[in-house]
Amino acid sequence: MRHLTPADYRQMPWANGRGTTVEMLREEDAVGLSLRLSMATVAEDGPFSALPGIERVLVLLDGPGFVLEIAGARHTVGLLQPVRFAGEAAVAARGVTGPSRDFNVMTRRGAPVPEVAVLRAGQGAEAARLLVFAPSGAELALGRGAVSLGAGDLLDAAGAARVLAGGPVIAVGLG
User: Fold this and answer.
1) What are φ and ψ of residue 39, in 5° steps?
2) Distance separating alpha carbons of residues 66 and 76, to the nearest angstrom
3) Are residues 54 and 127 both part of a single domain?
4) Which whole-number Å values give the CA distances from 3 to 7, 29, 87, in the listed order?
5) What angle do CA 126, 128, 131 make, to 5 degrees?
6) Eight-state DSSP code of residue 144
7) In a 3-state reduction of DSSP, which class is residue 8?
8) Which of 47, 85, 140, 168 is the most exposed place for a label (fewest CB within 10 A)?
């Protein structure tokens, strides 16, 4: 089990140069990027970075939201509702009326597809590897004990977790 806090994250520019992201977790192997979790703020209309060979899931954390144009189709981004799209697709934010913060899951195509779920008190998830992000803090039951996550913390663990209090949390199940 690994417990990461905002002090462990790093800020970096977007690939397209139009903003910055907070990279929470990044894993690479001999082929390249295999997994990345990050947060970003969408503050204006504009294109997303193209990331060929990467599968993406975006979850709106806060703010007024926006519309994602994905390969010409429009998808309203609702609060805490995961949206999946291919990294090489032409993606742009439209209708941005104010800053919105989002959580991003990126995995290499061909790797196990992550199960991304928003959990509230009493709900749980289970996976061979479970990444749990707490935007505003939460208390989790994990194995035989409890774990407290502060605002912005990320837990990397195996098995099952259930939200006892606080939340909501975003659970990313791998494998």
Assistant:
1) -125, 145
2) 6
3) no
4) 11, 22, 28
5) 70
6) T
7) helix
8) 47
- Distance from C-alpha of 19 to C-alpha of 170, rounded to nearest angstrom: 23
CB atoms within 10 A of CB 44: 12
Q: Kind of pairing, strands 46-47 and 20-29?
A: unpaired
Question: Are 103 and 161 in a shared domain?
Answer: no
Domain that holds residue 127: 115-174
pLDDT digits (tens, 9 = 90+) for 57-71: 999 999 999 999 999
Please answer whether residues 59 and 170 qualify as being in contact, where contact means their C-beta atoms are separated by less than 8 angstroms.
yes
For residues 96 and 63, state if they share a domain.
yes
In a domain, 66, yes or no: yes
List the chain residues with pLDDT less than 70: none
Instruction: State the total domains in the chain.
Output: 2
Compute the distance between CA of residue 142 and CA of residue 160 in angstroms, rounded to an integer.
Answer: 6
**How long is the chain?**
175
Give 33-46 pLDDT, tens digit per residue: 999 999 999 999 99
Single-letter code of the amino acid located at 27: E
